[in-house]
Design goal:
This protein has 2 domains: 2-136 and 292-325, Quinone Oxidoreductase, Chain A, domain 1; 143-268, Rossmann fold (3-Layer(aba) Sandwich), CATH 3.40.50.720. The protein is 24% helix and 32% strand. It has helices at 40-47, 131-134, 137-148, 165-176, 188-191, 227-233, 257-263, 275-287, 305-314, and strands at residues 2-10, 13-20, 28-38, 51-53, 56-57, 68-69, 74-81, 93-96, 99-100, 108-109, 112-113, 115-118, 122-124, 157-161, 180-185, 199-202, 217-222, 237-245, 266-268, 296-301, 321-325. Strands 3, 7, 8, 12, 13, 20 and 21 form a 7-stranded mixed beta sheet that branches. Strands 16-15-14-17-18-19 form a 6-stranded parallel beta sheet, sandwiched between helices. β9 and β10 (108-109) form a beta hairpin. α3 crosses α4 and α3 (137-148) crosses α8. The longest helix is centred in the C-terminal third of the chain and has 13 residues, at 275-287. It is globular and about 60 Å long. The two termini are 18 Å apart. This is Alcohol dehydrogenase-like N-terminal domain-containing protein. Residues 26-127 form the Alcohol dehydrogenase-like N-terminal domain. GO terms for molecular function: oxidoreductase activity.
């Protein structure tokens, strides 16, 4: 079976290409993809050859991880279902994470159409939903998970490191739970997209320490893998507080447990997605308090994926939500 996909053919090289996908099996669903969402953080590390899968960084001597189908999230319409598939019907709009492909470094990928996905990688969406609202659902779930992990009481000060998508959704989730949220970022355009009740601080122009009070910070979420900034915030954290580390740290993710123990700081290390959290994230979007499409900054036809990646590489600070229309 043939499909078209966004393929990283080598380091910092991308093509919209025809690929081979397995014939659908009895547990698979075939989807005609409408829209997919580029995870600019995670996918960029694959694009640069910095990791080979999941949380595994590339090391000299590892197999070179190309070619590979980029991404892991999309929305489309069910075309057909396998004989063992239950709960999905042709014509329904669904979200799909990973889909099958052959001839690549990894046998699964995201940005491809049509997509052949195992049933456990698919979630039904509410009737009448807009594809753009849900096509970044895995990444939205990561931010949701970051915001749900720590204990939060009304009025607690929560600091989010990073103004990217995970940081934005973690901040929205903490706000929904009653926290007083501060987002530390480096891009005025991104910070301007935060809800009004969240304070955005550009650390290029403002000292982090100047916006914090000793013993007041109850939660820190690091969405970008910036241990130096966490180290600057830690003295302001109160006893029995929480550190949520979600950014990719490669081989540099060292945490001094003894310094956490001195303040009884709980360490959370969220990664990936689960069915339960995906369902909860879908409900949060449907309920309207978790906002997704307002964070979209760029839209491209899928066949112009190379242009999308040039834009991400050359104008990173302007890119937040980047989606492909199929």
């Amino acid at each position: 079976m043939k499909a078209h996909a966004v393929v990283f053919t080598d380091k910092e090289k991308v093509e919209y290409a025809e690929v081979n996908v397995p014939e659908p099996g009895e547990n698979d669903v075939v989807i005609d993809v409408e829209t997919s969402w580029i995870s600019t953080g995670t996918e960029s590390s694959y694009f640069r050859g910095e990791r080979i899968r999941g949380e595994t960084p590339y090391k000299p001597g590892d197999p070179w991880p190309f070619p590979i189908v980029a991404g892991y999230q999309k929305v489309g319409i069910v075309r057909q279902v396998g004989s063992n598939v239950r709960g999905f019907e042709p014509g329904e709009r669904v979200f799909a994470a990973l889909s099958k492909v052959t001839g690549m470094f990894d046998a699964m990928g995201g940005h491809m159409n049509p997509a052949v996905s195992p049933q456990h990688q698919i979630w039904k969406l509410p009737d009448g939903t807009a594809p753009e609202d849900y096509c970044g659902l895995v990444l939205t779930q990561v931010g949701y998970n970051c915001g749900m992990r720590p204990a939060v009481e009304a009025g607690d000060v929560a600091v989010v490191i990073g103004d990217g998508l995970v940081g934005q959704w973690a901040a929205q989730t903490l706000l929904h739970r009653g926290a007083d949220v501060i987002v530390l970022g480096r891009h005025d355009g991104r910070l301007a997209r935060l809800p009004e009740r969240i304070r955005g601080v550009n650390t290029r122009t403002t000292e982090t320490e100047s916006v914090l009070e000793k013993g007041r910070v109850a939660v820190v979420v690091d969405s970008v893998g910036d241990m130096d900034t966490f180290g600057a915030i830690q003295p302001f954290m109160k006893r029995d507080s929480h550190f949520v580390s979600a950014g990719f740290l490669g081989e540099k993710g060292l945490v001094d447990i003894q310094t956490l123990r001195g303040q009884e700081i709980t360490l959370h290390t969220p990664s990936g997605w689960t069915g339960k959290r995906m369902e909860e994230t879908i409900r949060a979007i449907a309920d309207g308090w978790l906002q997704t499409s307002p964070l979209i900054t760029h839209r491209f036809p899928a066949e112009r994926a190379a242009e999308a990646w040039r834009t991400i590489a050359e104008r990173k600070s302007e890119c937040l939500g980047v989606i492909l229309h199929w």
